[in-house]
Amino acid sequence: MTSRPASTDPSGAQLGEEVAALRQEVARLNKHRFVRLHNSIVKLLWFNFLRGAAFGLGTVLGASVLLSALVWSVSQVEMLPVIGEWAAEIVRQMEAATEQ
Predict the structure, then answer these.
(1) pLDDT in the model for residue 74
(2) How far is the C-alpha of 98 from the C-alpha of 34, rounded, in Å?
(3) Is-contact 35 29, C-beta < 8 A?
């Protein structure tokens, strides 16, 4: 016959304390903003809409800055006549559009 060690067999008092601590932790987690957000479909949709709009705006602005820096740097290169002229024409058109 095998018997369990006393340390793995919690007594009723220890079990009650652990259940009370678990209830307290679950109550604390239910008060968290992330859980409250997912309890409401409207809040969740609004949060995801704003998150997507911010991501899209950041992507567009970042791509615009990188692309304009790339076009400007390529327009400065005159060793490659085709690419340099093409990039210079793009820069001229961009400057003409901003003046209007």
Answers:
(1) 76
(2) 44
(3) yes
Round to the nearest angstrom and report the end-to-end CA distance of the chain. 94
The string of DSSP letters for 7-51 reads TTS--HHHHHHHHHHHHHHHHHHHTSHHHHHHH-HHHHHHHHHHH
Domain total of the chain: 1
Which structural domain range is residue 54 located in? Answer: 12-99
pLDDT per residue, tens digit, the chain (100 aa), is 455 555 566 677 888 888 999 999 888 887 877 777 777 788 888 889 999 999 999 999 999 999 989 888 877 776 666 667 777 788 888 888 888 7
Which residues does 88 contact at the CB level (< 8 Å), separation at least 6?
75
In a domain, residue 7? The reply is no
Cα–Cα dist 88/80, whole Å = 12
In a domain, 68, yes or no: yes
Residue 1 lies in a domain: no
Task: Please report the pLDDT score of residue 1 as a whole number.
Answer: 46
